[in-house]
Write a structure and sequence with these properties.
mainly beta; 2 helices
């Protein structure tokens, strides 16, 4: 064992650069095979992942020290400046600059820093990458470098092999007869196996002046079988954040558009701005042009998508019945700005010319959760907002408008689609909260204020207008009636203190004060209606929350039983029937909301009077993290709240309780979470009335019985409306999904969504599955019965392909009735 002489200054650094260069050549093939780079603006490509144990170790060698472990070490050359180490029984080990070089014979020039290795050469870099070769030569000036039988193991399963790797000049690197694969090449017994996917090229050149990677005679293989060939192929150098060029195309088939080919092209304007032009060519209809724009402004970013065509309206459903050729398009834009300080602001602009444009042209992901307020299914929101948040305060100001692409229920006389005129323009919408730092009377104080103004063009009766103010018998908008406008201001304050008795009893006294003021315009002049009205109301509440967790330990389990109660006394609620119910139509009566002072999501309905809420949670935990938790609770009030009744959609003269809170005793609330084994877990909650009828329910169970075999079952139910009819909003759905491997990497996969209310299969698919460490492939049969296809369900073949490292792609080669 010999501690070598110290190298000249800088030679170790040059050797480190050369080693990094070979790893960088490997990265040229690891880059995405797309024709252009489309990274997020001002985001550099992620660094090569390093193993956790690859952190630099201080070996005491410094920048110039060299450590050799060999059977023999000799000095050769002029002035004996070259160390030659050889191993007879084991390979030589050399360590310098945090790198480890092994081989049967290693030569190191102490003066220039040049190094070479022969025979089973292995170079381990500080970032965890490993380079293998039969011959490896590293020059100090990096003008020339050669590796024979080159192989590199990169992050994960990525591997690169080449007959030779040569650095031709300071700007050109070349790999000859190269092969890259992200898949394992050895089986469990260590024998060679054909990688599932690989890319083979006669020559791969990295040109740093062009900032591009060039391939010659690139051949893509699946299980060793050639499937795709390109004589010339290129993509940006990994050092390039973004570059103009073609992106991956999309090929589809649709019985309405025919064969469809969409080819995006990226135009990089600057480091902070780019455009995407993506024309869609269709065999049966006119082309559709999609555009995308992104711009970074330092403290924010703006993204926009738009599309345009001049074509007839085709498809099963036409909103206005007019199929004549016309200008058609859409706009989906978003901006977010977060400057220094507590304030941030943003906007969304979402509009389309046709109710079914997204469906007819298969626009990708048009319904996104952007902005401060999100649109629900098939609704677009345009908004502008600002918000300020500190440690103890929050305020937001917003204005928004909604466009609906929803279908009306069957039998609805207002048209096929929901009328945008029945949806309000909300401006402004203000929400403010503040909690002082100091305590008052030993408790915390929280103050809140909110305000909203809603303007509606067309008249809407129930459920917006309360029973007695809407036009009896009018289910939809009447042309002669304007929409009801409203403005609201709410002020609320809460004081709460937490106390724990010596026996473990936890009790929280609290006081809540709330005041509302409404200004309402264009009320219909009917029973209870006065045209315009000003309504004020208030409520004072005082209460006590009590809970007492009890623990019982067994030999192999713990049982916690926690009874809880809330006693609340409030002034009587003043739910004036002239107040429109805009934001309190839906309520989720469950464990998390049962003990709230206000159990409605919004402010338009108010609870009052004397009430008592009781509940108990029991939790059992045993070995290996297994557990079962069950909650049962219910609320009681001194007298029924008839203000919670709503008009039955199909029988406007009949009322029903959609909340489960109207009677003196509320519905029962039952919820559970469970994990009886490490492979099975789930949760469920339900709302049950006194007759035992389940009014609302939701449940999910997930199970796995091996590393890759799994199944899930989900169920959702709403039966709050007791009257059947075309406008009945009750629903019941079940969803199942699973996959089972039958032999090695081959298996079956299936998914289905069933509408139990109408006894229809909304969506179902079943297919054959292949999956290994680097590829997932599905092919099968699909049936899709969505509400936009009035002519019946669509059936066809689906294909999904996901490749490790290369990304994923999904396409549907057939779509037939």
């Amino acid at each position: 064992m010999l501690r070598g002489a110290r190298a000249t200054p800088g030679s170790g650094q040059r050797l480190a650069t050369r080693a990094a260069l070979l790893a960088g050549c490997a990265l040229t093939i690891v880059a995405s095979p797309a024709w252009a780079s489309d990274e997020v603006i001002q985001t550099a490509p992620p660094p090569l992942p390093a193993p956790e144990d690859a952190a630099p170790i201080d070996d005491g060698l410094g920048d110039d020290g060299v450590y050799l472990d060999a059977d023999s070490v000799t000095r050769v050359g002029e002035n004996d400046q070259t160390l030659v180490a050889e191993g007879l029984r084991e390979r030589v080990l050399a360590r310098f600059q945090g790198r480890t070089l092994r081989g049967r014979r290693i030569a190191y020039d102490l003066e220039t820093g040049a190094a070479s290795g022969e025979g089973e050469v292995e170079l381990v870099n500080p970032d965890g990458t490993v380079v293998y070769a039969s011959l490896l030569e590293l020059d100090s000036d990096l003008v020339a470098g050669v590796a024979v039988d080159f192989a590199a193991r990169l992050g994960g399963h990525n591997k690169l092999m080449a007959a030779t790797a040569v650095r031709r000049s300071e700007t050109v690197n070349e790999l000859n007869y190269a092969l890259f694969t992200p898949c394992p090449i050895c089986d469990d017994e260590g024998n060679f196996k054909q990688p599932t996917i690989s890319v083979q090229a006669e020559q791969v050149v990295q040109d740093q002046e062009l900032r591009a990677i060039l391939y010659r005679n690139a051949l893509f293989r699946v299980a060793g079988v050639p499937v795709f060939y390109l004589p010339v192929f290129w993509h940006p150098d990994p050092s390039v954040e973004r570059a103009s060029g073609f992106l991956t195309p999309t090929i589809d088939f649709n019985d309405q558009r025919g064969i469809s080919y969409e080819q995006p092209y990226l135009i990089v304007v600057s480091p902070s701005e780019d455009w995407t032009i993506s024309p869609q060519f269709n065999s049966k209809v006119a082309p559709f042009l999609n555009l995308g724009w992104r711009r970074h402004f330092g403290d924010g970013i703006v993204t926009a998508r738009a599309g345009y065509t001049y074509e007839e309206a085709f498809g099963d459903i036409i909103a206005d019945g007019d199929r004549r050729a016309d200008h058609r398009g859409y706009l989906l834009a978003e901006g977010r700005f977060d400057p220094e300080g507590a304030w941030r602001w943003g906007f969304t602009a979402e509009r389309t010319s046709d109710k079914t444009l997204f469906d007819r042209y298969d626009i990708v992901d048009p319904y996104q959760d952007n902005g401060l307020y999100f649109g629900d299914s098939r609704r677009l929101i345009s908004q502008v907002y600002a918000e300020r948040q500190t440690e103890r305060s929050y305020v937001s100001i917003a204005a928004l408008a909604i466009q609906s692409l929803r279908l009306n229920p069957p039998g609805f006389s207002g048209g096929v689609f929901e009328d945008d005129g029945t949806l309000p323009i909300v401006a402004p919408l203000i929400d403010a909260r503040w909690s002082p730092e100091r305590e008052y009377w030993g408790g915390r104080l929280a103050l809140r204020a909110s305000s909203v103004a809603l303007t509606r063009e067309d008249y809407v009766g129930a459920p917006i207008l309360r029973p007695g103010t809407e036009l009896m018998g009018a289910l939809n908008g009447e042309p002669a009636l304007p929409g009801v406008d409203s403005r609201r201001l709410t002020l609320q304050g809460e004081w709460r203190r937490v106390l724990i008795a010596p026996i473990g009893l936890r009790y929280e006294p609290f006081v809540d004060v709330r005041a509302d003021a409404y200004s309402i315009s264009d009320l219909p002049v009917t029973l209870g209606g006065e045209g315009d009205a000003t309504v004020t109301r208030g409520r004072v509440s005082a209460g006590l929350d009590v809970s007492y967790p009890l623990l019982r330990r067994f030999d192999d389990a713990d049982l916690v039983i926690e009874p809880m109660a809330q006693l609340l006394a409030s002034t009587r609620s003043d739910n004036d029937p002239r107040i429109p119910n805009e934001d309190a139509q839906a309520i989720e009566l469950e464990e998390s909301t049962l003990f709230r002072v206000d159990r409605f999501a919004g402010q338009d309905l108010m609870e009052g009077g004397l009430r008592l809420t009781l509940g108990t949670r029991a939790t059992l935990r045993w070995d290996n993290g297994r557990n079962l938790s069950v909650f049962l609770g219910r609320s009681f009030r001194d007298e029924p709240e008839d203000d919670f009744l709503a008009v039955v959609p199909d029988r406007p003269r009949q009322l029903y309780d959609p909340t489960g809170l109207r009677d003196s005793a509320s519905d029962w609330v039952v919820s559970t979470t469970f994990s009886p084994t490490e492979r099975v877990r789930g949760w469920a909650h339900a709302q049950i009335d006194d007759s035992g009828t389940m009014r609302r329910a939701e449940a999910t169970v997930d199970a796995t019985w091996s590393r890759r075999n799994m199944a899930s079952l989900s169920y959702i139910l709403d039966r709050t409306n007791p009257v059947p009819g075309p406008l009945n909003r009750n629903y019941e759905f079940v969803q199942v999904a699973g996959q089972q491997f039958l032999w090695r990497d081959w298996g079956v996969v299936g998914r289905a969504v069933g509408d139990l209310e109408t006894d229809t299969l909304t969506r179902a698919e079943a297919g054959l599955l292949y999956e290994d460490e680097c590829l997932r492939f599905e092919i099968g049969y699909r049936r899709d019965n969505t509400r936009l296809d009035l002519d019946g369900p669509r059936t066809g073949i689906f294909v999904r392909l996901t490749l490790a490292t290369f990304g994923g792609s999904g396409y549907q080669p057939s779509d037939m009735r």
